[in-house]
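Lay summary. Proteins are chains of building blocks that fold into shapes, and those shapes determine what they do. In this project we predict the shape from the chain. Here is one chain we studied, written as its sequence of building blocks.
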Amino acid sequence: MSTAPLPRALGTTTLLLPCDGSPDALLALRHAIAAFHRGDVQTIHLLNVQPPFSAYVARHVDRRVLDDFRRERAREALAEARQLLDDAAVSYCLHTEVGDTARCIVDAARRLRCDRIVVGTGRKSALVRAFENSLTSRLLESSPIPVEVICGAPASALQRVGVPAGVGVGMAWLLVGGT
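And here is the predicted shape, written in a compact code that computers can read:
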């Protein structure tokens, strides 16, 4: 007798789409909409994560005011995504959370029993990715749930050449200045 889980039926895939309203996030959403219309996806969970306020702000501002502010920011960030889903006649579940973005995404994907997390990202040079603390990198490192990355437009000339050159000059300056 086999104890392996039964394969899921076609079209029962559940996706979690983190969305901050950025062009990259909307690109991932368009990818998910196409998958929904092909019958590859049954459920889409749209998630916006708001950062927590500092202890100083939380101590001096009424909690209802902070909650209203977060709700408004989430509404604004999700407005275009919701319009795209509504125009495409795709049903979805809307979620908002407060906390560390990567942790909230992974926790929501587990809680909602998602099969994949779909994120959009801009194309950047390897050096830029090595120095930045990108959400995509954090998700790929921490998520037990598969993360599908949808790449956006190619990196700009500044990102491909300027940033690596600036890092190189800065490191050379540190080496020369430190001796």
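What the prediction tells us: The chain has one domain: 14-177.
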